[in-house]
Request: fold
Amino acid sequence: MTPQQKLIDRDYYDQTNYHNRNATHLIDAKSAFQSYRTQKVLEIHTPGKDDVVLDLGCGWGTFCWLLADRVKHITGLDFSENSVTLCKEKLQKESYLNVDFHHADARDTRLPSEFYDLLIAADLFEHLYPDDSEKVITEAHRLLRSGGHLTAWTPNKSHIIEIMKNQNFLFKKDETHVDYKSMGGLVKTLEAAGFVIVKCYYVESHIPIFNVIERTFLRFIPLFRRRIAILARKP
Reply:
């Protein structure tokens, strides 16, 4: 980060009202984007009914509401106080007894060790600076039971849309995406922390017709690799 760049930290997310912004495709769990996102993340790994799950960087609580009826317990964690407040307000209107939200830093959650069967990190790593990513992965390893899994889902910088976003061409740059991770870099960091990689692959976007082209050519052409999907296991 250069001296001219502003630090994107928890204060940014709270002071800019990030989680209250008018972004229907993000807030609405039934939007085409969120439906695609949740489906693809659960295709990486689907938790069982006896699993205890932790959603790192839970945002609007999307995975908590989706999995509440499918798992033993799920906790949403976010370092944004606004995010956690929004989720807790919604929880008061629901009847879920197996859902809770925790305001904490994913680098040091203060949650119990070897307690969780699955950690979800969906659209988290692009919001983390490099050193923070390493700390989050180390913390994830501590939190998981032996045999537990970590699901990682993050944008791929080489995709045509991300390239246009970063040039502010047709799409607006997302300044909260402070460090795009490569698949190789994430795999290396996960393995260094003690994880075993179960699978890793690229995923097409949710855009109709275009995603068919992406699915066909993403193996060969980086411009068509929209997302990085990784499943890691703690031995």
In short: The chain has a mean pLDDT of 91. Residues 111 and 136 are 13 Å apart (CA to CA). The beta strands are 52-56, 73-78, 99-103, 116-122, 144-155, 196-203, 227-233.
